[in-house]
Structure formats: structure tokens, C-alpha cells
Amino acid sequence: MWRADAALECFLVLGAAHLEWGVGRRQGAAMVWQSRRRLAFADGESFLSVRVALHDLSDTLRESPSQTSPDDPGLTEGAALRVLVSERWMSLTDFPWHPQLADTPNADSYLRHALVDSGHSLAPGDRLTFDAPDWGERVSVAMWPEGLCQTLEEFAATLRLRFVGLLPLPLAVCAPPSREAAGPVAIAIVEPGWMRCYAAMNEVPACLRPLGERIPVDAEADIAAHCARLPLRWPGLQLPVRAVFLGTDLPFSFHERLVGVNAPSGEWPLLNQAEHAWPGLAGHGLDAAPALPAPTQRQWMVLGGLVGLLSLVVTLLVIVLVRAPADRSSRPVAEIAPVALQTVDPRRQAAVAGAVEMLNLPLDALMRQLVPPQDIRALPIDLEMGREASVRDGPAGVTMKLLVESPTAEEMSRYVAFLADRPQIARIQLLRHEVVEAEAARPYRYHLELRWKD
């Protein structure tokens, strides 16, 4: 049975070897769980096992939502769904900061090309999110496989949930560190078969930086040896390392450089981590959830007021239209004086025709022709339009003067060649160009004259 309850929160945590699902209601800083489930992955090496587990969980929630307890809310339509994903199923890395990342429309394209050039494997449909902490000159980048995102969106749609959060599980583990520290704190996350270390700060919102790559581990000696090398490779880390073990049963006695925080612990280690960490992760830069927020009560009230105002306007308009014929019939007929014909000034007629001609220009199509593709770095700054061409050459087109800025002469040439190939541009001419010496980047600024086809 479906129940509409937007106050409930649903948590889904995909670990390396199993998933944990929980539904609860937050009371203060604590979460009161009303339903929790755990499913193991049949094959920890294949994402297909994750899809099968999510499908089984979805079927269980739809067919028998109240088997665990009488208070189990079952399927809660409209509840918020928050998801944490282990690095087993997505990837985290860091990357040097670049000014292109501040350009929102082009940041994804730049980052995607830069990651591929640096050796990362990305599919066209993979999703990228990044976060630039204030304490470094590098950005943390999360790479989300297309199959993972589609599977989670289908899961949310099947259960009619609002998909409001999708974050890496290491971010929740590192937010916040368990103790105060002036510099980065080293945190080692150990999952079945592998581990990875991160640098985290006592900041809100949480931020982390991966330290090296994931490494396979089978015993305590592997973890101790790797952690002992951390201060040699990354000076300034606060030691000892804080170790967090997620779903591993190795009998660790803890090396002297490790503070073995075997938390989250208990029957629900992943859900416990999500419960304590998520309040500080809302709106984080690494969040890859696609959902839009649901309308609030105030927005519904505003919409209702607009509908009421529209109905009032329609009613008044009907009254005016009904009374108009009666008012016209009661008025005396006015005498119409003959109007003498006036001679039209040819110069005024030409000016009016030119103004009408300018108003009829296809400005939307014109502007689309001037927008460069993402791989050409050119920025149109100013545009002047005129109809001198109609006087000299007949209805040949519109003359435009365009001011553009590019970082290099090569980019300037590429943009001019791009405009020359546009089907609606009859002719292009480079009038002049200059290097802006006053700016540190010394960009090229140049003037173009274009002839637009009617």
C-alpha cells in the first residue's frame, strides 16, 4: 500500500559487498528507524549483482512492505531518498584547479577532456561532480558511471521517492573527523579486499582529498605498512591515522600508527554512518542527484492565489464584453468629418521601412550562428548591426560588426574559420586585431565585419 509522507527519510547505502536500506524519521540530531534491511551482493566483482539486489529490494518493498515490524511504513510515496555509494562502484580522484572550472557551462566539458587526457576511463554518459575546498589548489572529482545513475533513478521512480542526494560513501566517513586538528587528518577506509586513504578537514561542508589509489589488502600488515608510508608521501598529515573498517571481519590488533575506530559498528554499520554524517552534506558539490526539490507549502499557496486572481480577471472581462454592445447602442452617432489626403514624405517612408525591416530580422537564428562550439575558445563581446548593405547592394543582407576576444591567435583563426563556414553568413572580413597588454593573460581582441543572408 502506498502512503504519502514527505517527512520520512529513506537511506540507501551501497557498500563493497552488501547494501543497507533504512526508513526513518529524524528527531533532533538522531534518526528513529522504522524499517531497516540488508542484502548481500551475490558477486562483489560485478555491478550486475548490485542491480539484482536493488531489484529484489524494490520487489520486497512493493509486495510485503510491513514484514519487519508493525511500525514499518512500507512504501512511502514522496519520501526523500538519499544514497551513499562505495568507491567499489564509482571513482574519486583529485585534479588541479583551473579557471575553466569556474565557467559553469564549460566546466563539465573541460573536466571530462582533462580526465581522459590524464588516463581516466570515462563513457559519454558518465556523470561528473566536483568540489573545490578552500584549503588547497586541487578539486575533488567524483566519476559516476551511467549504469549506476540510471539504476538508482529507476529504483527511486519505482518506489515513487524523491531522489534528493547521491554522494560517495568516503565523504560520509570523512565528515567530520572525530577529533580537532589544525591540518588535514589522515583517514584509512578499509572494505573487504581493499583500502584507500584520504585527507579530511574539520570543516563544514565536509571536504576530502584522495591520497593515492586503492590498494588490495588481505591482512593487518598490509594496512600498517601502507599507513606508515603516508607521512613520507604527504608531509603535514596529522597522525596517527584514523582507520574505519566497513564490512570486514579481519582480526585487527591495530598498528601503533593506527587509531582503530571500528565505527560504524554493529548490525548496521553503513546506515549508522549515513545517519550521523548526512545532515552536514546537504547541497555538497559532489552530490550527483538529478532531482528537483518538491514544491513547498508556500509555493502551493502562491499558485492558488494566482489561479484565484486569474479567475477574477476572466469574470470581469466577461462582464465588460456583455455590457459593451448595450453601451454602444445608447450613444449618439458621431459625424465623421472627411479627412484630407496627405502627401507622404519619401524620406520618412524609407526610414519607417528600414525600422520595420530591422524589427523583422531573425535575431535568434543570427545569435545561434555566432555561438562557437565548446572546443573553440572565443568570447563575443559587442555586436553592432546596420542595413547599409541594403542601400549599396540591394536586399543582400545585414552588415554586422562583431568584437571578439580569444586567448591566442590560433583560437582567433579557428573562430574566424568557424564563422566563414556558417550557412547564413555571406561574407566575413577581419578588420583589425590587437593584443590586450593590460591583462595578465594578454588575450587577442579583434573586430570582424559580417554579411548576413536574408
Précis, in short:
By secondary structure, the chain is α/β, with parallel strands linked by helices.
Order of helices and strands: EEEEHEEEHEEHEHEEEHEEHHHHEHEHEE
Q: Count up the helices.
A: 11
**Assembly type:** single chain
Ends: how far apart? 62 Å
Architecture (CATH level 2) name of the largest domain: 2-Layer Sandwich
User: How does the helix and strand content classify structurally?
Assistant: alpha/beta
Number of strands: 19
What is the count of distinct domains? 2
Percent range for helical residues?
Answer: 25-40%
Give unreliable regions as ranges: 66-70, 251-257, 389-395
Question: Averaging pLDDT over every residue, what do you get?
Answer: 76
Strand content: 25-35%
Strand order, largest beta sheet: 4-3-2-6-10
Q: CATH first level of the largest domain: which class?
A: Alpha Beta
Shape: flat
CATH topology type of the largest domain: Nucleotidyltransferase, domain 5
Output the radius of gyration: 32 Å
State the major sheet: 5 strands, mixed
